Amino acid sequence: MQISTSETGSKGQYTATLDGHVGEMTYSRASPKLIIIDHTGVANELRGKGVGQALAAHAVEEARKGGWKIVPLCPFFKAQALRHAEWADLISG
Question: How far apart are alpha carbons 32 and 49 in whole angstroms?
């Protein structure tokens, strides 16, 4: 699975591509050290294949590298954050 990042102004997106189908996680940059993850969407063909989880893990990895926190507005990401106690230091709000 390939995950790419794109950012335009304060809006950003992580995109995962698998078997020709796409999943995405969108975010807004509230400040240089804070992002708000607001949406996760995965094509029906990718459901159950761990794409959403891979996007969430990628967001956490990027936050660790960049030294920022995440506000989990997206219900999917919020649920993932609750399942991963090791992410607690990055979760804000």
Answer: 32
Could you tell me where the DSSP H helices lie in the chain?
51-66, 75-83
Where residue 75 falls among pLDDT bands split at 50, 70, 90?
Answer: very high
Name the one residue in this structure whose structure tokens are 């995405």.
24
Q: Which residue in 16, 17, 34 sits closest to 25, CA to CA? A: 16
- Residue 17's beta-bridge partner residues? 2, 22
pTM of the full predicted structure?
0.93
The two tokens of residue 5 are 């990042």
Average pLDDT of span 8-21: 94
**Taking a C-beta distance cutoff of 8 angstroms, is the pair 59, 69 a contact?**
no
Cβ atoms 38, 22 nearer than 8 A: no
